[in-house]
Amino acid sequence: MRTITRASAILLMALGAAAGAAAQQPIPEFKPRQLIPEQARKFIGTWQRYPGGADTPARGNCGKLVDQNGQPRRGCALPVDQLPLSPRAWAWVAFADELLAPVYECAAHTVPTLLGDVRPFHISMEMDSVLVNYEMGNTFRRIWTDGRGHPPPYQLFYQGHAIGRWEGEQLVVETTNFTFDPDGMDDHAHLATSVRKRVIERYSLVNPNEMKIEITLEDPLFLTRPFTWSHTWRKTTTRPLDGWAECDPDVTRREIELTVKEKYPEK
Amino acid sequence: MQRGRALALTILFVMLVTVPAPAHHSFTNFWHMDRTVEITGVVKALKLVNPHSEITIDVPDGPLKGVWYITSRATGSALRNGGWTPETLTVGQIVKVEGNPSRKEGAKALAAGKITLADGKVLSFGGDAAIPQG
User: Fold this and answer.
1) The pLDDT of residue A180 is above 50
2) CA of B71: which chain A residue's CA is closest?
3) Average pLDDT along chain B
4) Is there a contact between B54 and B99 (Cβ–Cβ < 8 Å)?
5) Does B73 touch chain A (CB under 8 A)?
């Protein structure tokens, strides 16, 4: 018994000495912001589309597309009239039924539609990623900046898998591994995208308060070639992101069923 | 006088903080924005949701008799910022609604607009200077 007590005392002394030695070593100062590149920090903040506002031409045009009510489509998220749509895309346009669009089931928007919306978004940074919070639908995107690659092509995600890298002062984001998306190219024109969709976003500052986003969309199934366009956003300190009230699919579906003529009334 | 000044400040504040933005679809595509229909009925429900809120109204008699669905011309978020709460309208309350009719023939639906209460008080359900369309 005495032997055990003596051994315990020796052990405690040894541990205490070790702890004391550790305490004497200088603890390196933790500076997480140092891990976020200097140029990256300039992008942090809330960005407002410029120009913006109701019926803004910045939201893009819908080309000559007509909806099920016989009206010209309006307010598309990208310049539809310039899109190099493939025959498969035109076949989708002929087939697609507005009443089946996922947005009316409160499904979130994806890029590039998210990027074509005129509501503001907020950029924040973590050590391994860039976080973008879009007011539209209170949607979050995480863009990994820790050097990882994309997962295998059979791993699919509704918002895709986004990785970012810095090319000088420019943030380059590549998003792949999307699921098939009936509104994946545009939510107003209801242009679909396939699992081969690839979106490249290039964020660059024109000045400290103005940002240009150049977007390149690739999808060999629905486009005959990659398509690139851009728009401008301005940093705002007076327009915080609005709290997005919950979406109710019953209400949303009812609105659409009461306003849009049926495409397939025989069903 | 003070109440008038407060109201003016409130309207100004709402105009400043509410930025118009296109909806998840174009209103013109789904609603006859150049026509106005007026109905008077009993409130059955109010849902303050996104992207658009909804009032259900029962019109008890007349040529427009039936259950009508009123879609807000602004997002639910914008309505809340503009002062709307789930208690702004109560079930059983009589209201007059002015709104734009649906492009789908025969549909009992309006995009509103202007809500007038029995005491004459007028509420914006979006689509004007107080709560812009979106």
Assistant:
1) yes
2) A255
3) 85
4) no
5) no
Q: Which residues of A touch B103 (CB under 8 A)?
A: 69, 71, 259-261
Reported as a single tens digit per residue, the pLDDT across A89-125 is: 999 999 999 999 999 999 999 999 999 888 899 999 9
**What does residue B19 show for φ and ψ, rounded to 5 degrees?**
-100, 125
Statement: the pTM of the whole predicted model exceeds 0.80:
yes
| CA–CA dist A42, A40 (Å, integer) | 5
Residue A199, pLDDT > 80, answer yes
Encode burial over A1-11: b for 16+ CB neighbours within 10 A, e otherwise. eeeeeeeeeee
- Nearest CB among A74, A137, A251 relative to B47 is that of A251
For residue B75, the chain A residue with the least C-alpha distance is: A245
Distance from the B106 Cα atom to the nearest Cα atom in chain A, whole angstroms = 9
Report the run of H or E that residue B41 belongs to, with start and end. Answer: strand B37-47
Task: Give the other-Cβ count within 10 Å of A214's Cβ.
Answer: 15
The tokens of A43 are what?
A: 């992008």
In this prediction the ipTM stands at 0.82
**Which listed CATH number (1.20.1560.10, 2.40.50.140, 2.40.10.120, 1.10.101.10) goes with B2-124?**
2.40.50.140
Using an 8 Å CB-CB cutoff, list chain B residues near A259: 30-31, 102-104, 107, 109
Distance CA A98, CA A191 (A): 11
Cβ atoms of A178 and A155 within 8 Å: the answer is no
Match 């092509």 to its residue by tokens: A153
Q: How many CB pairs under 8 A join A and B?
A: 100
Tokens of A239: 């327009």
Distance in angstroms (rounded) separating the CA atoms of residues B58 and A147: 59
Q: What is the pLDDT of residues B5-47, one digit of tens each?
A: 544 433 333 333 333 444 566 889 999 999 999 999 999 999 9
Domain ranges of chain A: 42-257
Q: How many helices (H) and strands (E) does chain A have?
A: 5, 11
